[in-house]
Design a protein that fits this description.
binds 4'-deoxy-4'-aminopyridoxal-5'-phosphate; Aspartate Aminotransferase, domain 1; three-stranded antiparallel beta sheet; binds glutamic acid; alpha/beta; about 400 residues
């Protein structure tokens, strides 16, 4: 805390995913053999056809500021993608391209929340939802879920959390960190509750859409009675391994999209022009071209679940999408390891870093203090070695 800084930033938590990744990087630079399973970042490189589109954009002299909400032809590519993959119909004024889905989410919080507005976060939720909410003056309201229910919120628990101050709900499906995927039927049951509260805006974060092993992706906006108050968030970071290219986008009600456009007109002037050109190519091509990555994640999921099942005390459900497992590690609480008592998931995650040289993230950052998140967006070799080390450190 530095009193010279604003209360806003002093009261803000550092992103736990990025902090752990930085710590792992630091330890690696000091000579330690750290295996990083903390960051949700595909270990693949960007597909050749996307790289070529970016190179071509440089050669074609794209250099100037783009329209604040994204190039017109990129918006058209996004509109086609929403129709092709999600059967959602949007017009250009309903689309905003941003510097990553993270900025799309931050825009939404800034344009929708007033001081004290409550934001429902089915927990575990993605780490940044709560601080993005707080910075915008909102109040995060966690809704607990259980591993037995695959960490999915039930309609009853959703309804019980709604108050007159509820403004918004944010969730991801496939979910970071639990890997859970809401089926169309499950989303419909949640929608049946939400239709009774027409002022609540739904933010549906679908950035892991393609990394879904059930074969079915459902969107809240596909329900006619939810379309007018649902914002669908997506991006190219995960499916196209373009994390550093920083392109995310939304489709949603026009008044919200125009407000996001106004907000980022003052904050960033819009996303990077070369990355936007490359994203047109990424989205226009068939998702079949990235299936090899999805297939690899599916194989790694099996590998890591098999290896985790050999470690007594790690309770895991079967994630259906994204590239994370979220084991409950509370069986280790109160136990001594090398003279230190593990009291919390943070202690546990730190112990794994020190004793096994494996970086994970504490579930506390995701609103579940009994779990840790392990990313399997890593090579099979690293996954096998990491699980071997963890098993040894816990034996
Ligand atoms: N939503 C979820 C659920 C995520 O895991 C991430 C992590 N990258 C983001 C949004 C933000 O993605 P980006 O800003 O890289 O598009
Ligand atoms: N979303 C990724 C994760 O959860 C990347 C880190 C971040 O954006 O916070 O690990």
């Amino acid at each position: 805390m530095n009193p010279k800084l604003s209360d806003r930033v002093n009261n803000m938590a550092t992103s736990a995913t990025l902090a752990m990744a930085a710590k792992a990087r630091e330890l690696r630079e000091s000579g330690k053999d750290i295996i990083g399973l903390s960051l949700g970042e595909p270990d693949f490189t960007v597909p050749e056809f996307v790289k070529e589109a970016a190179i071509q954009a440089v050669k074609d002299d794209y250099h100037a500021y783009t329209p604040v909400d994204g190039y017109g032809d990129l918006k058209q590519a996004i509109i086609k993608k929403f129709k092709r993959d999600n059967n959602l119909t949007y017009t250009p004024n309903q689309i905003v391209v941003s510097t990553g889905a993270k900025q799309s989410l931050a825009n939404l919080a800034m344009v929708l929340l007033n001081e004290g507005d409550e934001v429902l976060l089915p927990a575990p939720y993605w780490v940044s939802y709560s601080d993005i909410t707080k910075v915008a003056g909102g109040v995060p309201v966690e809704i607990k879920t259980t591993i037995e229910n695959d960490f999915k919120v039930t309609p009853e628990d959703l309804e019980a959390a709604i108050t007159p101050k509820t403004k918004m709900i944010i969730y991801s499906s496939p979910c970071n960190p639990s890997g859970s995927v809401y089926s169309e039927k499950e989303l419909r049951a949640l929608a049946d509750v939400l239709v009774k509260y027409p002022d609540i805006i739904v933010v549906s974060d679908e950035i892991y859409e393609h990394i879904n092993f059930t074969g079915d992706h459902a969107s809240m906006a596909q329900f006619e009675d939810m379309y007018d108050r649902t914002v669908t968030v997506n991006g190219v970071s995960k499916a196209y391994a373009m994390t550093g290219w920083r392109i995310g986008y939304i489709g949603g009600p026009e008044y919200i999209a125009r407000a996001c456009n106004k907000m980022q007109g003052q904050n960033t002037s819009g996303a990077n022009c070369i990355a936007q050109r490359a994203t047109i190519t990424a989205l226009e091509e068939s998702p079949k071209r990235i299936e090899y990555m999805v297939q690899a994640f599916k194989e790694r999921r099996k590998l890591i679940l098999d290896l985790l099942s050999e470690i007594p005390g790690m309770q895991t459900n079967e994630p259906e999408g994204a590239f994370y497992v979220f084991p409950n590690v509370s069986a280790f609480f109160g136990k001594d390891f090398g003279g230190k008592t593990i009291q919390t998931a943070s202690d546990f995650s730190l112990y794994l870093l020190e004793a096994a040289n494996v970086a994970t993230v504490t579930g506390e950052a995701f609103g579940n203090p009994e779990c840790i998140r392990i990313s399997y967006a890593a090579s099979e070799k690293d996954i096998v070695e990491a699980m071997k080390r963890i098993k040894k450190a816990l034996s």
